[in-house]
Amino acid sequence: MTMLIPFAGLAPVSWKNGGGSTTSIAVFPPDAGFEDFDWRVSLATIAADGPFSTFPGVERTLALVDGPGMTLDIDGDPAMVSDAQPVIAFDGDAQVSARLSRGPSTDFNVMTRTDRCWHRFGRRMLDGASTFVARADVTLLFLAEGESLELCSDDQRINLVRYDAVLLDPDTTWKLQADQGTIFIADIHYYDDEDDLAAAEGDYD
User: Fold this and answer.
1) What is the pLDDT of residues 95-109, one digit of tens each?
2) What is the CATH number of domain 118-190?
3) pLDDT tens digits, residue range 78-87?
4) Helix/strand number for the chain, H first, E second
5) Which residue ranges in the chain fall short of pLDDT 50?
6) Which residues of 24-35 are buried (b: 16+ CB within 10 A; e: fewer)?
7) Where in the chain do CATH 2.60.120.10 domains reside?
8) CATH 2.60.40.1930 fits 3-116, yes or no
9) 199 and 184 in contact (C-beta within 8 Å)?
10) What are the beta bridge partners of residue 121?
């Protein structure tokens, strides 16, 4: 069922390693913790240099939402996260530490457990009216920039303000209306059978 997730109603929790806090936007199963989720979408503010939590068996995508960004050390390799390069993907079991550029940064995070599902991350700039089709098993839209966004289908109208999110039913079509803004798109796909899992892991010849 399509569901609006107002950011104002969410509460932060401590990081898995206790080094900061994160606000969970959506997780499945709904009562899952850090060790047993299928997928998780969250928003975190990194206020100081330090290590990330590790999540073995999980794929992660991080996207800069606000702030000057940071340099990530991922298993010894540096990677910049900035306005010019706002998105990075990495393994959850990697050893990752952050060095802030000029101050705190807020980041959008998508995590999927690799033996159950996988995700694609997208960004779309909004300027007026456009159309969006939800094609994944789970599709989450997040208003990363902009004051407001209106979504309309044949029988629903949903209004978002910045940092709100919405979970969309599969195979639904929506009209988007925003003066200006940016949405992040998290498409999550479950493996239907062992062949899907093998294909995703590159086991086919």
Assistant:
1) 999 999 988 899 999
2) 2.60.120.10
3) 999 999 999 9
4) 1, 17
5) 195, 199, 202-205
6) bbbbbeeeeebe
7) 3-116, 118-190
8) no
9) no
10) 186
